[in-house]
Amino acid sequence: MTGTHRAVQSPIDAGIRRITPESWRMLALAATGLLVASNLAWWSTTRSGAEQRGSPPAAASTLPAPERVIYEYGPTPLAAEVPTPVDQTPTPLRPGERCAGGQIIRRLPNGWEGVGRPCTP
Protein backbone atom coordinates (compact mmCIF):
# COMPACT_ATOMS: atom_id res chain seq x y z
CA MET A 1 0.00 0.00 0.00
CA THR A 2 2.79 2.33 -0.58
CA GLY A 3 2.01 5.27 -2.77
CA THR A 4 -1.74 5.19 -2.20
CA HIS A 5 -2.91 7.73 0.33
CA ARG A 6 -6.54 8.31 1.01
CA ALA A 7 -7.65 11.49 2.79
CA VAL A 8 -10.08 11.08 5.64
CA GLN A 9 -13.18 13.18 5.10
CA SER A 10 -15.04 14.60 8.08
CA PRO A 11 -18.82 14.20 8.23
CA ILE A 12 -19.24 18.00 8.20
CA ASP A 13 -17.28 18.37 4.96
CA ALA A 14 -19.25 15.54 3.42
CA GLY A 15 -22.54 17.20 4.40
CA ILE A 16 -21.57 20.58 2.94
CA ARG A 17 -20.49 19.02 -0.32
CA ARG A 18 -23.85 17.31 -0.68
CA ILE A 19 -25.68 20.65 -0.73
CA THR A 20 -26.22 21.46 -4.37
CA PRO A 21 -26.89 24.87 -5.91
CA GLU A 22 -30.52 23.85 -6.20
CA SER A 23 -30.62 23.25 -2.43
CA TRP A 24 -29.18 26.72 -1.79
CA ARG A 25 -31.85 28.25 -4.02
CA MET A 26 -34.60 26.42 -2.16
CA LEU A 27 -33.17 27.53 1.19
CA ALA A 28 -33.04 31.17 0.02
CA LEU A 29 -36.60 30.92 -1.31
CA ALA A 30 -37.85 29.50 2.01
CA ALA A 31 -36.11 32.28 3.99
CA THR A 32 -37.60 34.92 1.69
CA GLY A 33 -41.05 33.38 2.06
CA LEU A 34 -40.75 33.41 5.85
CA LEU A 35 -39.71 37.07 5.79
CA VAL A 36 -42.64 38.02 3.55
CA ALA A 37 -45.10 36.07 5.72
CA SER A 38 -43.89 37.73 8.93
CA ASN A 39 -44.10 41.19 7.35
CA LEU A 40 -47.64 40.50 6.14
CA ALA A 41 -48.66 39.30 9.60
CA TRP A 42 -47.28 42.46 11.19
CA TRP A 43 -48.94 44.67 8.59
CA SER A 44 -52.31 42.99 9.02
CA THR A 45 -52.25 43.42 12.82
CA THR A 46 -51.38 47.10 12.58
CA ARG A 47 -54.07 47.71 9.95
CA SER A 48 -56.84 45.81 11.71
CA GLY A 49 -59.52 48.30 10.70
CA ALA A 50 -59.39 50.32 13.90
CA GLU A 51 -58.89 53.54 11.91
CA GLN A 52 -61.98 52.81 9.84
CA ARG A 53 -64.14 52.28 12.92
CA GLY A 54 -62.79 55.41 14.58
CA SER A 55 -61.68 53.58 17.71
CA PRO A 56 -58.15 53.84 19.05
CA PRO A 57 -55.78 50.93 18.47
CA ALA A 58 -55.70 48.17 21.07
CA ALA A 59 -52.29 49.26 22.38
CA ALA A 60 -53.54 52.77 23.13
CA SER A 61 -56.42 51.49 25.27
CA THR A 62 -53.98 49.78 27.65
CA LEU A 63 -52.07 52.98 28.42
CA PRO A 64 -52.65 54.51 31.86
CA ALA A 65 -54.70 57.67 32.12
CA PRO A 66 -52.64 60.85 32.14
CA GLU A 67 -52.17 62.51 35.50
CA ARG A 68 -54.32 65.50 36.26
CA VAL A 69 -52.77 68.51 37.89
CA ILE A 70 -54.96 70.87 39.89
CA TYR A 71 -53.66 74.34 40.48
CA GLU A 72 -54.96 76.23 43.47
CA TYR A 73 -54.44 79.94 43.43
CA GLY A 74 -54.55 81.73 46.75
CA PRO A 75 -54.62 85.43 47.44
CA THR A 76 -51.58 87.29 46.25
CA PRO A 77 -49.17 88.13 49.05
CA LEU A 78 -48.74 91.76 49.92
CA ALA A 79 -45.70 93.45 48.51
CA ALA A 80 -42.76 93.38 50.85
CA GLU A 81 -41.79 96.68 52.29
CA VAL A 82 -38.86 98.27 50.56
CA PRO A 83 -36.03 98.54 53.06
CA THR A 84 -35.08 102.08 53.81
CA PRO A 85 -31.45 102.79 53.06
CA VAL A 86 -29.39 103.18 56.19
CA ASP A 87 -26.78 105.85 56.21
CA GLN A 88 -23.60 103.90 55.90
CA THR A 89 -20.57 105.90 56.71
CA PRO A 90 -17.42 104.90 54.89
CA THR A 91 -15.04 102.73 56.87
CA PRO A 92 -12.04 104.72 58.05
CA LEU A 93 -8.91 103.48 56.28
CA ARG A 94 -5.37 103.64 57.53
CA PRO A 95 -2.48 104.72 55.32
CA GLY A 96 -1.73 102.07 52.67
CA GLU A 97 -5.19 100.48 52.90
CA ARG A 98 -8.06 100.54 50.46
CA CYS A 99 -11.52 99.00 50.09
CA ALA A 100 -11.90 96.34 47.40
CA GLY A 101 -14.77 93.86 47.07
CA GLY A 102 -16.26 94.78 50.44
CA GLN A 103 -13.01 94.01 52.28
CA ILE A 104 -10.12 96.15 53.42
CA ILE A 105 -6.82 95.31 51.75
CA ARG A 106 -3.41 96.80 52.42
CA ARG A 107 -0.35 97.25 50.29
CA LEU A 108 2.70 95.09 50.97
CA PRO A 109 6.10 95.32 49.28
CA ASN A 110 5.30 92.31 47.07
CA GLY A 111 1.51 92.76 46.54
CA TRP A 112 -1.76 93.22 48.42
CA GLU A 113 -3.04 91.44 51.54
CA GLY A 114 -6.58 91.14 52.87
CA VAL A 115 -6.96 92.48 56.39
CA GLY A 116 -10.17 90.53 57.07
CA ARG A 117 -12.29 93.53 58.05
CA PRO A 118 -15.36 94.43 56.00
CA CYS A 119 -15.57 97.89 54.58
CA THR A 120 -18.13 100.19 53.03
CA PRO A 121 -16.86 102.45 50.27
Unreliable stretches covering 5 or more consecutive residues: none
* Beta fraction: 5-15%
Q: How many strands in all? A: 3
Which outline best applies? Answer: elongated
Spatial strand order of the main sheet: 1-2-3
Write the H/E string, N to C. Answer: HHHHEEE
Number of helices: 4
The gyration radius over C-alpha positions equals 45 Å
The percentage helix is: 25-40%
Largest sheet: 3 strands, antiparallel
- Output the structural class: alpha+beta
Measure the end-to-end span.
Answer: 115 Å
Mean pLDDT reading: 78
What does this structure look like?
Among the domains are: 11-47; 92-121, no CATH class. Strand 1 (97-100) and strand 2 (103-108) form a beta hairpin. With 121 residues, the chain is an alpha+beta fold. The chain has a three-stranded antiparallel beta sheet with strand order 1-2-3, with no helix packed on it. It is 35% helix and 15% strand. It has helices at residues 11-18, 21-46, 50-53, 58-61; strands at 97-100, 103-108, 111-118. The radius of gyration is 45 Å and the shape is elongated. Residues 78-99 are annotated as: Disordered.
Short descriptors:
121 residues, alpha+beta, 3-stranded antiparallel sheet, 3 strands
Give the helices and strands, then pairings.
Layout lengths: L10 H8 L2 H26 L3 H4 L4 H4 L35 E4 L2 E6 L2 E8 L3
Antiparallel strand pairs: 1-2, 2-3
